[in-house]
Amino acid sequence: DTAVSQTPKYLVTQMGNDKSIKCEQNLGHDTMYWYKQDSKKFLKIMFSYNNKELIINETVPNRFSPKSPDKAHLNLHINSLELGDSAVYFCASSQEPGQLWRHGYTFGSGTRLTVV
Amino acid sequence: EDKVVQSPLSLVVHEGDTVTLNCSYEVTNFRSLLWYKQEKKAPTFLFMLTSSGIEKKSGRLSSILDKKELFSILNITATQTGDSAVYLCAVVIRRGADGLTFGKGTHLIIQP
Protein backbone atom coordinates (compact mmCIF):
# COMPACT_ATOMS: atom_id res chain seq x y z
CA ASP A 1 0.00 0.00 0.00
CA THR A 2 2.11 2.87 -1.35
CA ALA A 3 2.24 5.91 0.92
CA VAL A 4 3.45 8.50 -1.60
CA SER A 5 3.00 7.56 -5.23
CA GLN A 6 4.17 9.37 -8.33
CA THR A 7 3.34 8.88 -11.97
CA PRO A 8 4.89 8.39 -14.37
CA LYS A 9 8.10 6.70 -13.17
CA TYR A 10 9.87 7.58 -16.40
CA LEU A 11 9.19 10.42 -18.80
CA VAL A 12 11.09 11.11 -22.02
CA THR A 13 10.05 14.17 -23.96
CA GLN A 14 11.32 16.72 -26.43
CA MET A 15 12.50 20.23 -25.68
CA GLY A 16 9.74 22.78 -25.72
CA ASN A 17 6.99 20.39 -24.66
CA ASP A 18 4.74 20.84 -21.62
CA LYS A 19 4.41 17.93 -19.21
CA SER A 20 2.93 17.05 -15.83
CA ILE A 21 3.95 14.71 -13.05
CA LYS A 22 1.31 13.55 -10.58
CA CYS A 23 1.72 12.86 -6.89
CA GLU A 24 -0.68 11.41 -4.37
CA GLN A 25 -0.24 10.60 -0.69
CA ASN A 26 -2.52 8.45 1.43
CA LEU A 27 -0.93 9.27 4.77
CA GLY A 28 -3.21 12.11 5.68
CA HIS A 29 -0.21 14.44 5.81
CA ASP A 30 -0.72 18.17 5.86
CA THR A 31 2.17 19.29 3.69
CA MET A 32 3.52 18.12 0.36
CA TYR A 33 6.72 18.95 -1.48
CA TRP A 34 8.54 18.65 -4.75
CA TYR A 35 12.29 18.04 -4.87
CA LYS A 36 14.67 17.88 -7.81
CA GLN A 37 17.67 15.52 -7.73
CA ASP A 38 20.38 16.24 -10.27
CA SER A 39 22.84 13.86 -11.88
CA LYS A 40 25.19 14.23 -8.90
CA LYS A 41 22.43 13.08 -6.55
CA PHE A 42 21.98 16.51 -4.98
CA LEU A 43 18.42 16.92 -3.71
CA LYS A 44 17.02 20.42 -3.69
CA ILE A 45 13.59 21.59 -2.67
CA MET A 46 11.42 23.24 -5.29
CA PHE A 47 8.08 23.80 -3.56
CA SER A 48 6.28 23.12 -0.35
CA TYR A 49 2.52 23.36 -0.07
CA ASN A 50 -0.15 22.91 2.54
CA ASN A 51 -3.74 24.03 2.62
CA LYS A 52 -2.79 27.51 3.49
CA GLU A 53 0.46 28.32 1.87
CA LEU A 54 2.63 27.71 -1.17
CA ILE A 55 6.30 28.37 -0.65
CA ILE A 56 8.44 28.54 -3.73
CA ASN A 57 12.19 28.20 -3.83
CA GLU A 58 13.23 31.40 -5.53
CA THR A 59 15.69 29.61 -7.80
CA VAL A 60 12.93 27.59 -9.49
CA PRO A 61 12.03 28.95 -12.95
CA ASN A 62 8.44 30.05 -13.34
CA ARG A 63 8.02 27.39 -16.03
CA PHE A 64 7.47 25.06 -13.08
CA SER A 65 4.15 25.30 -11.27
CA PRO A 66 2.57 23.10 -8.60
CA LYS A 67 -1.15 22.41 -8.66
CA SER A 68 -3.01 20.94 -5.71
CA PRO A 69 -6.60 19.86 -6.38
CA ASP A 70 -6.92 18.64 -2.79
CA LYS A 71 -4.87 17.88 0.31
CA ALA A 72 -3.77 14.45 -0.93
CA HIS A 73 -2.47 15.55 -4.32
CA LEU A 74 0.27 17.87 -5.52
CA ASN A 75 1.00 17.78 -9.24
CA LEU A 76 3.94 19.42 -10.97
CA HIS A 77 3.45 21.14 -14.32
CA ILE A 78 6.42 22.07 -16.43
CA ASN A 79 6.13 24.32 -19.47
CA SER A 80 8.58 24.71 -22.34
CA LEU A 81 10.88 21.93 -21.17
CA GLU A 82 14.63 22.49 -21.46
CA LEU A 83 17.56 20.07 -21.54
CA GLY A 84 18.61 21.21 -18.07
CA ASP A 85 15.31 20.06 -16.64
CA SER A 86 16.45 16.46 -17.00
CA ALA A 87 16.60 15.05 -13.47
CA VAL A 88 14.75 12.85 -11.03
CA TYR A 89 11.82 14.62 -9.39
CA PHE A 90 10.67 13.44 -5.99
CA CYS A 91 7.40 14.17 -4.32
CA ALA A 92 7.30 14.05 -0.51
CA SER A 93 4.89 14.67 2.32
CA SER A 94 5.11 15.36 6.03
CA GLN A 95 2.90 15.35 9.06
CA GLU A 96 2.51 18.19 11.52
CA PRO A 97 5.82 19.14 13.14
CA GLY A 98 5.15 17.25 16.37
CA GLN A 99 4.97 13.94 14.52
CA LEU A 100 8.04 14.28 12.33
CA TRP A 101 10.15 12.16 14.68
CA ARG A 102 8.16 9.07 13.76
CA HIS A 103 8.60 9.01 10.01
CA GLY A 104 10.41 12.13 8.95
CA TYR A 105 9.36 13.19 5.51
CA THR A 106 8.06 10.38 3.30
CA PHE A 107 9.29 10.35 -0.27
CA GLY A 108 7.78 8.93 -3.42
CA SER A 109 9.88 6.70 -5.65
CA GLY A 110 10.71 9.47 -8.08
CA THR A 111 10.05 10.37 -11.71
CA ARG A 112 13.04 10.28 -14.02
CA LEU A 113 12.54 13.05 -16.57
CA THR A 114 14.72 13.05 -19.68
CA VAL A 115 14.46 15.96 -22.07
CA VAL A 116 15.91 15.32 -25.53
CA GLU B 1 22.70 31.19 2.66
CA ASP B 2 21.78 27.99 4.49
CA LYS B 3 24.35 25.25 4.01
CA VAL B 4 24.61 21.54 4.82
CA VAL B 5 27.99 19.88 4.18
CA GLN B 6 28.60 16.16 4.29
CA SER B 7 31.91 14.35 4.39
CA PRO B 8 33.37 12.29 3.00
CA LEU B 9 31.59 12.48 -0.35
CA SER B 10 32.45 8.85 -0.99
CA LEU B 11 33.82 6.01 1.08
CA VAL B 12 34.79 2.43 0.28
CA VAL B 13 35.27 -0.04 3.14
CA HIS B 14 35.19 -3.79 3.69
CA GLU B 15 32.37 -5.76 5.25
CA GLY B 16 32.62 -5.75 9.01
CA ASP B 17 34.26 -2.33 9.24
CA THR B 18 32.76 0.52 11.22
CA VAL B 19 32.13 3.80 9.42
CA THR B 20 31.40 7.34 10.60
CA LEU B 21 29.68 9.78 8.29
CA ASN B 22 29.76 13.49 9.03
CA CYS B 23 27.29 16.29 8.51
CA SER B 24 27.88 19.94 9.42
CA TYR B 25 25.45 22.77 8.94
CA GLU B 26 25.24 26.54 8.90
CA VAL B 27 21.61 27.57 8.91
CA THR B 28 19.39 30.18 10.48
CA ASN B 29 16.64 28.99 12.82
CA PHE B 30 17.71 25.36 13.05
CA ARG B 31 14.89 23.03 14.00
CA SER B 32 16.03 19.45 13.47
CA LEU B 33 18.38 17.26 11.44
CA LEU B 34 17.41 14.13 9.58
CA TRP B 35 19.37 11.25 8.09
CA TYR B 36 18.17 9.31 5.05
CA LYS B 37 19.44 6.27 3.17
CA GLN B 38 19.00 6.28 -0.60
CA GLU B 39 19.56 3.17 -2.65
CA LYS B 40 18.04 3.05 -6.10
CA LYS B 41 14.85 4.98 -5.55
CA ALA B 42 13.28 7.02 -2.77
CA PRO B 43 15.26 8.19 0.25
CA THR B 44 14.19 6.22 3.29
CA PHE B 45 14.05 7.78 6.71
CA LEU B 46 16.63 6.74 9.31
CA PHE B 47 16.71 9.26 12.16
CA MET B 48 15.51 12.65 13.24
CA LEU B 49 17.61 14.55 15.78
CA THR B 50 16.46 17.64 17.60
CA SER B 51 18.33 17.69 20.90
CA SER B 52 22.07 17.73 21.47
CA GLY B 53 23.84 14.75 22.96
CA ILE B 54 21.02 12.23 22.75
CA GLU B 55 22.00 9.23 20.70
CA LYS B 56 19.44 7.61 18.44
CA LYS B 57 19.98 3.92 17.66
CA SER B 58 18.47 1.46 15.25
CA GLY B 59 20.26 -1.86 15.05
CA ARG B 60 23.80 -1.26 13.80
CA LEU B 61 23.09 2.40 13.01
CA SER B 62 23.35 5.25 15.47
CA SER B 63 23.45 9.00 15.26
CA ILE B 64 24.05 11.97 17.49
CA LEU B 65 23.72 15.74 17.17
CA ASP B 66 25.94 18.51 18.55
CA LYS B 67 24.06 21.80 18.35
CA LYS B 68 26.93 23.78 19.81
CA GLU B 69 29.42 22.69 17.16
CA LEU B 70 26.71 22.40 14.49
CA PHE B 71 27.27 18.86 13.31
CA SER B 72 25.94 15.36 13.41
CA ILE B 73 27.50 11.94 12.83
CA LEU B 74 26.00 8.71 11.60
CA ASN B 75 27.77 5.54 12.70
CA ILE B 76 27.35 2.14 11.12
CA THR B 77 29.00 -0.79 12.90
CA ALA B 78 29.73 -4.24 11.45
CA THR B 79 28.90 -3.03 7.97
CA GLN B 80 27.25 -5.32 5.44
CA THR B 81 27.02 -5.11 1.66
CA GLY B 82 23.37 -4.11 2.05
CA ASP B 83 24.52 -0.91 3.73
CA SER B 84 25.89 0.31 0.41
CA ALA B 85 23.91 3.43 -0.47
CA VAL B 86 24.01 7.20 -0.54
CA TYR B 87 23.45 8.60 2.95
CA LEU B 88 21.79 11.99 3.00
CA CYS B 89 21.78 14.53 5.79
CA ALA B 90 19.08 17.21 5.79
CA VAL B 91 18.12 20.08 8.03
CA VAL B 92 14.67 21.43 8.84
CA ILE B 93 14.65 25.16 9.32
CA ARG B 94 12.08 26.91 11.46
CA ARG B 95 10.62 28.97 8.69
CA GLY B 96 7.24 27.54 7.88
CA ALA B 97 6.58 24.47 5.78
CA ASP B 98 9.54 24.81 3.47
CA GLY B 99 10.92 21.34 3.61
CA LEU B 100 14.40 19.97 3.94
CA THR B 101 17.75 21.45 2.99
CA PHE B 102 19.97 18.55 1.96
CA GLY B 103 23.69 17.96 1.88
CA LYS B 104 25.22 16.37 -1.19
CA GLY B 105 25.34 12.94 0.41
CA THR B 106 28.00 10.37 1.20
CA HIS B 107 28.24 7.52 -1.28
CA LEU B 108 29.14 4.47 0.82
CA ILE B 109 30.33 1.26 -0.81
CA ILE B 110 30.80 -1.89 1.27
CA GLN B 111 33.02 -4.46 -0.39
CA PRO B 112 32.65 -8.16 0.48
Question: Keyphrases for this structure?
Answer:
heterodimer, A: 116 residues, mainly beta, 4-stranded antiparallel β-sheet, globular, B: 112 residues, 6-stranded mixed β-sheet, 5-stranded antiparallel β-sheet, 11 strands
Give an account of the 3D structure.
The complex is a heterodimer of chains A (116) and B (112). Chain A is mainly β. Chain A contains one helix and eleven strands; from the N terminus they run βββββββββαββ. In chain A, the strands form two sheets. In chain A, strands 2, 4, 5, 6, 9, 10 and 11 form a seven-stranded mixed sheet that branches. Chain A has a four-stranded antiparallel sheet with strand order 1-3-8-7, with no helix packed on it. Chain A is globular, with a radius of gyration of 14 Å. By secondary structure, chain B is mainly β. Chain B has strands spanning 3-7, 10-14, 19-26, 30-38, 44-49, 56-58, 61-66, 71-76, 85-93, 100-102, 106-111. In chain B, the strands form two sheets. In chain B, strands 2, 4, 5, 9, 10 and 11 form a six-stranded mixed sheet that branches. Chain B has a five-stranded antiparallel sheet with strand order 1-3-8-7-6, with no helix packed on it. In chain B, a hairpin with a 4-residue loop joins strand 7 and strand 8 (71-76). The termini of chain B are far apart. The relative contact order of chain B is 0.34. The model of chain B has no long low-confidence stretch (mean pLDDT 92). The A-B interface holds A 4, 30-31, 33, 35, 40-45, 48-50, 53, 55, 57, 90, 92, 94, 97, 100-101, 103-110 and B 31-32, 34, 36, 38, 41-45, 48, 50, 86, 88, 90, 92, 96-102, 104-105, 107.
